[in-house]
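Memo to structure team: turn this sequence into structure tokens by end of day. - J.P.
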Amino acid sequence: MTHLSTDDGVVDNRQRWDKKSHFILVCVGYAVGLGNVWRFPYLCYLSGGGAFLIPYFLMLVVCGIPMLLLEFAIGQFIRYGPVGAFARICPIFKGVGVATVTMTFFLTTYYNVIIAWAIFYLFSSFQSELPWASCNHTWNTEDCFSHEDYDELEEGELPPNDTVSASEEFFHHRVLGKTEGIEDMGGMRWELLGCLALAYIAVYFCIFKGVKSSGRVVYVTALFPYVLLVTLMVTGFTLPGAFEGIKFFFLPKWELLLDAQVWKAAAAQNLGSIGIAFGSMIAFASFNDFHNRSIVRDTLVICLTNSLTSILACSVIFSVLGYIAEIQNAPSIGEVVTSGPGLVFMVYPAAFPTMVVPQLWAVLFFIMLICLGLDSQFAMVEVVITTITDTFPHWKYLYWDRKEILAAYVCIFTFLCGIPCVMEGGIYFFQLMDWYASVVSVGFIAFFEVIAVSWFYDARRLSRNIQQMTGVRANYYFLVCWMFLAPFLLLAILIFSIVDYEVVEYGGYAYPVWAECFGWLIALVSIACIPVGAIHAVMTAKGSLRERLISSLKTTLDDERHAAKFMADGGYSAVYDQSKF
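Reply from structure team:
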């Protein structure tokens, strides 16, 4: 490990990735997660299919790619997690770093619930007949209609209308034991609680040794899902009605482009899936070598891999949605299942009974979901741990300066916070948390993040920092996006989202006012970190109010002196011969 003095005199003995491939795979594993096979299809389905793709790819070019490079650059250059990095970039915006970690913490409390569902399905797959393949179970209703029922239809006979797929009933009635609303949380789903505990044990053993252990784990967790997704896509395309599902996915409903909620969802998916404004990518990049030259290439690889995986996953899920619409005789693909966070558990399993050895494919699929979820979950837990060690070094006595003990503290606490999500009414609590803690908050935090770096720290200065690390300044495309396009597009989406605000719902269930207020309270906890951080920065600065305000707007980072510490170890001076690159 290299030991260098930083600009504030502290020795840089930060952990490093064992290999460059570990950094790439961890970032790909974090970006390519359950959001690609769960949230992206869900938002696409909710937003009318192809209408979602246009704002999604526009946001990717204007916000996603430029802002990921921005986070990689500040993490690798400043060598701190999000809280420490923003405190040095511009003290008045140090609350942005706290906000990213707060939002990530909320996400860790319920994200592992999805892995718990996948573990439940995995155990359920070891049966002679998949339990969601038929309607002959105690949890099924008279409206249930399965693949077996479809096969028994006479030639030319149409399936009955207004039926519910066997896979949807299994998810709602057997897995969740869903109540009528959040007012009735019901009892504990003890099987799910056990699955949640197993999920946290798996997360703990992925991260307890730090970035070195997580870097090795992703060789399996990041690569295995692609094999299975391609197999499922080939199978899905052969199902009856698959073509109609693919048409629904790729053909946009143009009128939905005027709906601000579609644009907000596209922005949230871009930022959330890639990991922007969650602090994870800043933390990961801080473990890079200072003179890692490939951050632009890494940015493009991660963003394109993430988007192509989303398209691949959507191709699978909409082909199966077309099949479900066919066997249910549904008038529209948009009406065949309940749109919500459980979409992936209601749609993908419906394809397994049509495959040879369905139990094998079900087991492989849910192992894939667990791998995807673990990648993202241990990345988010790593951010919380990195923030604690960076921001509160004097707390070391609480965990005896041992990473594995601190990791255990974080895992146990977030496990306890996730318990409401595995109660009978837990799906309503889950949906509330997911919408307000992630979708609502991320746009606000991303806006202030890009403003803090590009306007106050100065995008041109960041470009020079990239040159000091790689030898090449950032392209003008990135400068324009950082300074103008990204902040103004994010601001426009925020304004229109507020004007065109819609209440969160689950499957037609409207949340009561108190639940909505609770959701906004969750969102405001992370958003409020920004003004609170600004007030704290001004109050703790020295001098008159005017002097303290001016001081808080200036960076505390002497980037030239900071970079000079690393020059002898392979960095690049600010003056270089462009012909060499």
